[in-house]
Specification:
The complex is a heterodimer of chains A (about 600) and B (about 425). Chain A is mostly helical and about 600 residues long. Chain A is about 55% helix and about 5% strand. In chain A, strands 1-2 form a two-stranded antiparallel sheet. A two-stranded antiparallel sheet of chain A has the order 3-4. Chain A has a two-stranded antiparallel ribbon with strand order 5-6. In chain A, a hairpin with a 2-residue loop joins β5 (about 350) and β6 (about 355). The longest helix of chain A has 21 residues, at about 95-115. Chain A is globular and about 90 Å long. Chain B is an alpha/beta fold and about 425 residues long. Chain B has 14 helices and twelve strands. In chain B, strands 1, 5, 6, 7, 8, 9, 10, 11 and 12 form a nine-stranded mixed β-sheet that branches. Chain B has a three-stranded antiparallel β-sheet with strand order 2-4-3. In chain B, a hairpin with a 5-residue loop joins β3 and β4 (about 100). The longest helix of chain B is centred in the C-terminal third of the chain and has 20 residues, at about 300-320. Classes of the chains: A mainly alpha (about 600), B alpha/beta (about 425). Chains A and B meet through α7, α8, α16, α27 and α29 of A and α6, β7, α9, α10 and α12 of B.
Chain lengths: ~600, ~425
């Protein structure tokens, strides 16, 4: 697998010798293979090397580094915890987050009622304050409030902006997005962050949907993160009970049809009124039939989360799985999972050929999860997706087959599955095979340039709140109009609004999908903004990247920048193009190429788009 | 931008493909078409087709309501849209032909329908039985229902059949961050999420130089054989051409007013590109949010809100383009429709056939085309959905042939024989 060295001392000496002996301007292929492997691992199992990382891993040994990454609990990450100390919404209990979410709705409804906008409420949200029943139905999917409209910045506007961070349910989303970036840039647990990104995408949730903008905070913290190195069945089970997922794929509304009596209707109307401020009392409260099967989650858990679209299930299975998950919902006050047996379809079911006897209650859903988690189709589907993320867009079938076997043999031990992938020869021969997503690109650019995400201050909190609102569709134009964008908004504009992919399929894992002219332009602009000090929350010092080299020797400057940013991956053609540029600049034939611009050019190079 | 350079790129692509360094697109018969000698010249000069893909399976039965079919009201007690002119005060649909009515939120379409420029094709879609969004979108975009090995899109294959007299990097533009499947293939495509940001910020100095071999452009030009190479080249050609367009200050013509939001902006930018005469032949926009599983609403509500934005933007585009609509066709589509019966949450689950719109100066509009299969239980597909009577490929083929001038339809829709006699008569 990796090279064998007699001792760390020998390895270090060899690396040092190579560094000294490499003549200036020599192309990458003369770097020792060990270094190439390290760079590949740092690019693929993390978000790219920071200055000094390659050497540090060289000293530690690649095997030791990888083992450490596979056991992130052994890595001290207190620096990240410190960086995230001010992100208080991310530590809040779900009940407090939900409380603020409903407070936003009440505020909005009050404002609409006060301005006599009953018709507007009806037209946009189907809430007819004159027709309580419709109001009750619509309020189950509560309306989206909006922050203050942007306008000429007067004292009223300033006060509104200062009050914004108190709107927890908007700030929470902005903080969640920013925290993801902070972790990817600063955390030593790089592989964990890569896998969190993968599994968040696999169990995609769109924060634009109802309370998901707060519930995703909980999902990230309690569903995804704790399980990425655990058993797949546990991750799947956590997701099935995650209120964010229950909302996103409508399972919270998936119920057996049943008769609802007047007392329950009264209680419910009071509950809706308490939450949203809408008078939801029906004119007549006679017993009536309500509810019914909603197969959205039943379909997507089979098609996307486990078996895969060719996994051998039928439309009948989709419905039967839907029936098994009736009653799996959440409490809107606490924001926690709750199984409501009154809403559960207690009949007998048949899923994938297995009979599930009647009166199973919550166990029906658990049985489905057991069934699908242990299916060979699931092993193959998950193996393929992980190989696509970690190895290549067209994952080698032989590798997928071996990894699928590991999945089955270990009962879905995700740590062992990942280890099987990253110790394979296919992994090691796949350097540069993947194109970075906008998130990966932005984060790796900051890391490569030795940068950091700046500590948020009060105005950063305002910005995070605005970005949260803009992500769900309020004030995006306003945020886009800022002269300096944050890393989060830059990634948004490069085509990857975080946690906001609309369809359950998530962002494409086939990285070729990220390549397009518009996307490329956005990346080049980001590189220029980053090195020009125009990214609001990224601080980088490009001068450090040429430390010690005489700036009047452009070839040396260029080679140092290329070495520090691309670690030997610069192609001869890229080097030639840039060399012509710096020489022309030096000879006064074109505008001076200063170091920030040179760094931007390299960050925008075709090589840097790959991982 | 001269023709020989473009030919070089195409030949370069072919050379690389035979050397095995490029991904080889699809089965042999398709490659034969791509690299084949008998490309057909477009008959009609520079026409533009704007495809609008409603992602998420839009409820055709709500967009164009079959109020003449009693079953519709039985199936959707809470979310049906009332017939036109209902005395009860509920907002009814807008009568089209005595049997079908437009959803009231699609009111901006009514004058276009009455002027004979908007046609409806109902009970239209893909015959494939899948109810997976992902699969169904893939099939409708590749144009090959049921064959997952095809990697290219029907519109890209169509364009390859119609060689350009003047090459342009703007020939095909998707108003998205990522090239949609419909436009994937060897014809170069620009994916532009926002025209206003399509340029290198403060980049004059960076790009400046005696030749294009400097800086960003040079690096991407040199990245031969790399998927990034094509994207890079197209970017810089396009930026140069866009220098004449001020995308931030644009006043729509004829008093047109686009609704705020990404879809309105996408259509407005398509209008700008058309008017700038940059050679736009195919444009693509993809409004989403149509997957109304819960609380769909009826005449007002969730779906109505989306439809209002949808129709206002399209009507604004129509108005803005004015006389140019003679050369433009707007075609809407969606991967499937929604179940005839509402579900337990006042929404609808995935269905089968849906409703497409075609709009343009040459469209023979003012009619609901296709044959209506009926909504009686025995007439439903699998006892749950509106059945299909028009295959989407026949609609696409008619537009590709009569509007864009494509002739070798077998190359565009390989396993679906196209019979022009079977066209719905859209154009």
């Amino acid at each position: 697998m990796t090279g064998h060295f007699a001792s760390r001392g020998t390895r270090a000496a060899l690396l040092l010798a190579c560094a000294i002996l490499l003549p200036r301007g020599v192309a990458a292929d003369q770097a020792p293979p060990d270094k190439e492997k390290i760079v590949h691992v740092l690019n693929r199992l993390g978000f790219g090397p920071r200055p000094g990382d390659v050497e540090a891993v060289g000293r530690m040994g690649l095997d030791a580094y990888i083992q450490q990454q596979l056991h992130p609990e052994t890595i001290d990450d207190s620096a990240v915890d410190k960086a995230l100390a001010s992100f208080d919404t991310l530590k809040m209990d779900s009940s407090d987050l939900m409380a603020d979410y409903y407070a936003e709705i009440r505020r909005f409804i009050e404002k609409q009622k006060a301005s006599g906008n009953g018709a507007e409420l009806k037209a946009r949200y189907g809430i007819d304050t004159g027709k309580p029943e419709a109001a009750a139905a619509a309020a189950v999917q509560p309306a989206m409030p909006g922050p203050a409209k942007p306008g000429p910045a007067g004292p009223g506007m300033l006060q509104t902006l200062q009050e914004l961070p108190s709107r927890i349910s908007l700030r929470a989303l902005g903080e969640l997005q920013t925290a993801k970036i902070v972790r990817a840039v600063e955390s030593k647990r790089q592989l964990e962050e890569v896998l969190v990104d993968f599994w968040s995408n696999h169990f995609n949730i769109d924060v634009k949907k109802g309370p998901d903008r707060v519930l995703k905070v909980i999902d990230d913290r309690e569903t995804i993160r704790p399980h990425v190195f655990g058993r797949f069945r546990d991750l799947l089970g956590a997701s099935a009970q995650s209120p964010a997922m229950l909302v996103y794929l409508d399972n919270a509304e998936n119920t057996a049809p049943r008769k609802v009596g007047p007392i329950e209707q009264w209680i419910r109307a009071k509950y809706v009124e308490h939450l949203t401020g809408v008078d939801a009392m029906p004119a007549q409260m006679t017993p009536k039939m309500e509810g019914g099967l909603n197969e959205n989650y039943g379909r997507e858990i089979l098609e996307l989360h486990s078996l895969g679209v060719d996994g051998g299930y039928t439309q009948q299975d989709v419905q039967e799985v839907g029936r098994c998950f009736t009653g799996w919902g959440y409490n809107r006050l606490t924001g926690k999972f709750r199984f409501d047996s009154r809403q559960h379809d207690n009949g007998e079911k048949k899923v994938l050929g297995q009979v599930i006897p009647a009166n199973g209650g919550q166990a029906d859903g658990e049985k489905v999860l057991d069934l699908i988690a242990s299916s060979p189709a699931t092993a193959g589907h998950i193996a393929e997706k992980l190989c696509r993320r970690l190895v290549a867009d067209d994952p080698p079938p032989a590798l997928v087959k071996r990894v699928s076997a590991v999945f089955q043999d270990t009962d879905g031990d995700l740590r062992k599955v990942v280890e099987a992938i990253i110790s394979s020869p296919e992994f090691y021969s796949s350097a540069h095979a993947k194109i970075k997503s906008p998130f990966e690109f932005a984060v790796s650019a900051v890391r490569a340039a030795g940068g950091h995400v700046t500590e948020p201050n009060a105005s950063a909190k305002i910005r995070e709140t605005l970005e949260g609102a803009a992500t769900i569709g309020y004030g995006a134009e306003f945020v886009s109009g800022f002269k300096r964008h944050s890393l989060n908004w830059s990634i948004h504009e490069m085509g990857e609004p975080l946690f906001a992919f609309q369809a359950p399929t998530g962002y494409p894992e086939d990285s070729r999908r990220w390549v397009s002219a518009g996307a490329l332009i956005a990346r080049l602009n980001f590189a220029l903004a980053l090195t020009g000090g125009k990214v609001a929350d990224a601080s980088i010092d490009t001068a450090k990247l040429v430390g010690g080299v005489d700036i009047d020797h452009p070839a040396e400057v260029l080679d140092r920048v290329l070495a520090n940013l691309l670690h030997g991956d610069a192609s001869a053609s890229t080097r030639d193009v840039l060399m012509k540029r710096v020489i022309a600049a030096q000879q006064g034939q074109s505008a001076t190429v200063n170091v920030p611009q040179l760094v931007a050019l390299v960050l925008g190079s075709p090589e840097f788009q790959r991982r | 931008m001269n023709l020989s350079r473009r030919l070089f790129l195409k030949k370069g692509a072919i050379a690389l493909a035979s050397a095995g360094t490029m991904p080889l697109w699809g089965p042999l018969f398709l490659r034969g078409t791509v690299f084949g000698a008998e490309a057909v010249r477009a008959e009609n000069g520079r026409k533009t087709l704007i495809c609008i893909f409603q992602r998420g399976a839009v409820d055709g039965l709500s967009m164009v309501v079959p109020f003449g079919d009693r079953n519709y009201y039985d199936y959707r007690k809470e979310i049906a849209i009332a017939p036109p002119g209902t005395a009860s005060g509920a907002e009814g649909c807008l009568d089209l032909d005595g049997y079908f009515g437009l959803h009231p939120a699609l009111a901006p379409f009514l004058p276009l329908y009455k002027a004979g420029h908007l046609a409806v094709v109902h009970a239209c879609g893909s015959p494939n039985a899948t109810r997976s969004h992902f699969d169904a979108q893939d099939f409708m975009e590749s144009g090959v229902a049921g064959d997952k090995t095809v990697q290219t899109g029907w519109l890209n294959r169509t364009l390859l059949q119609c060689p350009e007299d003047r090459a342009s990097p703007f020939r095909a533009v998707a108003m998205s961050p990522v090239i949609p499947r419909t436009l994937q293939g060897d014809q170069e495509v620009l994916a532009i999420p926002d025209l206003r940001h399509f340029g290198i910020a403060g980049g004059a100095e960076i790009l400046q130089g005696a030749s294009t071999a400097n800086g960003f452009e040079g690096m991407y030009e040199s990245a031969v054989g790399d998927v990034l190479h094509g994207a890079g080249k197209e970017s810089f050609e396009a930026i140069a051409m866009l220098k004449g367009i001020d995308a931030t200050h644009y006043t729509p013509a004829n008093g047109a007013s686009y609704p705020p939001g990404p879809f309105g902006r996408s259509l407005m930018q398509i209008a700008q590109l058309i008017k700038a005469n940059v050679g736009l032949e195919a444009a693509f926009a993809e409004p989403d949010g149509w997957d109304t599983h819960a609380n769909q609403g009826g005449a007002s509500g969730q779906l109505a809100g989306r439809l209002g934005d949808f129709s206002a933007a399209i009507a604004a585009l129509y108005q803005d383009l004015g006389d140019r609509m003679e050369d433009v066709v707007i075609l809407t589509m969606s991967e499937f429709g929604r179940a005839a019966r509402q579900n337990g949450n006042h929404g609808t689950d995935h269905g089968h056939a849906t409703c497409f719109f075609a709009l343009g100066g040459t469209i023979r509009g003012g009619r609901v085309l296709g044959s209506w299969p009926g909504l009686a239980p025995e007439q439903l597909y699998e006892n749950r959905d509106l059945a299909l009577t028009t295959d989407f490929r026949d609609i696409f083929a008619e537009i590709a042939q009569k509007h864009l001038g494509a002739r070798k339809l077998a190359g565009i829709f390989p396993n679906h024989p196209i019979d022009p006699a079977g066209y719905r008569g859209l154009i």
